[in-house]
Amino acid sequence: MAKRYVPCFLGVFVSIAVTSLLLQAEAPPPPAVYIFGDSTLDVGTNDFIPGCLARADFYFNGIDFPHSKPTGRFSNGLNTADQIAILLGLKKSPPPFLYLLNHPSKFKQSILQGANFASGGSGILNSTGLQKRSISLEDQIKQFSTVRSNITHMTGSEEATDNILSKAFFLISTGSNDIFEYLLNPTPPMSAPEFNDTLISTYEYHIKTLYELGARMFGILTVPPIGCTPFARAVFTGNNSCFELAQDFALDFSLDVAILLENFSSQVQDIKYSLGNTFLMTSFFMGDMLGFGLKNIAAACCGNGTYDCNQTASFCSNRDEYLFWDRFHPSQRASELAALTLFGASEPLVAPINFSQLLGVDI
Ligand SMILES: *[C@@H]1O[C@H](CO)[C@@H](O)[C@H](O)[C@H]1NC(C)=O
Ligand SMILES: *[C@@H]1O[C@H](CO)[C@@H](O)[C@H](O)[C@H]1NC(C)=O
Ligand SMILES: *[C@@H]1O[C@H](CO)[C@@H](O)[C@H](O)[C@H]1NC(C)=O
Ligand SMILES: *[C@@H]1O[C@H](CO)[C@@H](O)[C@H](O)[C@H]1NC(C)=O
Ligand SMILES: *[C@@H]1O[C@H](CO)[C@@H](O)[C@H](O)[C@H]1NC(C)=O
Ligand SMILES: *[C@@H]1O[C@H](CO)[C@@H](O)[C@H](O)[C@H]1NC(C)=O
Ligand SMILES: *[C@@H]1O[C@H](CO)[C@@H](O)[C@H](O)[C@H]1NC(C)=O
Ligand SMILES: *[C@@H]1O[C@H](CO)[C@@H](O)[C@H](O)[C@H]1NC(C)=O
């Protein structure tokens, strides 16, 4: 497998991860995982939204998923939500909350183990993804608050629910779509500093709301180098270079989120978090592409920078060698590299502690 290309620090980690899989019988059960954000973590939420324009439940998406099944993941196979769940000892991401709503017999048992609320096209701001009918972070958190009340219905007390949720893992990846929409069409028109401030203060509000609903353990992913996506290279610069303005916004955002979390965790003493700097780690993969077994870091494997992946698009056969599956999203292999980095690396890629340390995964 392509894993042999993984360089030193990840290589050690991979062999340890395999060992820990063998020891899994003795390991404590994985924590409940509640997942929020955008298409990087969506495992089929949008399949259940009538008229949603941000969907991936069609071929060639899922070509490397078991049975080559398009599930709604924006990937050739598993995505980042799955890869993180696997390192926690699960088979894949918990199912979409909207799937569980449609399968009442599974609902109660499943929500105790987690749920995935992430919706492709969504962002931090309510306005982001509105036209695509994506579910905003605000509404994802509202859905989680009903889940909280459902858990309390089962446990019989708010205290018991607090106790359960304090041990759960809250994973969030969002912000990219806000920046893209701002750059494509600033509505309402806002200056760049105003936009940054609104974005970060709205994010703070959402994270505090999750805290009030019982979340205590956070894994937060920053905005990756979206100026270097095949989309940005084709649509913004048109000469295949990275779009520097989008890079600046993404980098600024990751710095701002770091400050936000430092500040918030000093105000409330009882949270633990790990901030995965996907901007830096993806730049790191791009800067040493051969070291990571990647041969193409600029083009989409399926479709191209201008057109989405679909059944009539052309696609590459060496998918593990591409950073990008389609014009926006990482390949299954790139999401695996990211998850391994989140669990096995150190500052500044993941700070102040890595996911293994946060989650007590014994590796
Ligand atoms: C976002 O939308 C929700 C409704 O889902 C609303 O309650 C909230 O006030 C809105 N927030 C802003 C900042 O407009
Ligand atoms: C979950 O909670 C919501 C809001 O309290 C309620 O409407 C819904 O019926 C509950 N679902 C289940 C399966 O108990
Ligand atoms: C917001 O981001 C832009 C783009 O990077 C930057 O030029 C601007 O200084 C930032 N503003 C603030 C207040 O951080
Ligand atoms: C590509 O285009 C951008 C502006 O669209 C420009 O700033 C940049 O210098 C160009 N790069 C190359 C290599 O031509
Ligand atoms: C930290 O949080 C407080 C309270 O919310 C706020 O007033 C302050 O501006 C924040 N500081 C920074 C650096 O974000
Ligand atoms: C992108 O794909 C579309 C649809 O297949 C095709 O028409 C177009 O020529 C491609 N663009 C480039 C730059 O290859
Ligand atoms: C696939 O995408 C191309 C380019 O956007 C479009 O012309 C075509 O109709 C799409 N095909 C299907 C089956 O959706
Ligand atoms: C990541 O966390 C693990 C604990 O699980 C620790 O052993 C390891 O040293 C950390 N990695 C780095 C590079 O700090």
TrEMBL record:
Q: Which InterPro entries match?
A: GDSL, GDSL_Est/Lipase, SGNH_hydro_sf, SGNH_plant_lipase-like
Q: What is this protein called?
A: GDSL esterase/lipase At5g33370-like
Keyword Lipid metabolism in annotation: yes
Tell me the keywords, alphabetical order. Answer: Hydrolase, Lipid degradation, Lipid metabolism, Signal
Which family is this protein grouped under?
Belongs to the 'GDSL' lipolytic enzyme family.
Which Pfam family, any one, appears in the UniProt record?
A: Lipase_GDSL
Say yes or no: keyword rRNA-binding present.
Answer: no
Would you indicate the residue range of the signal peptide? 1-27
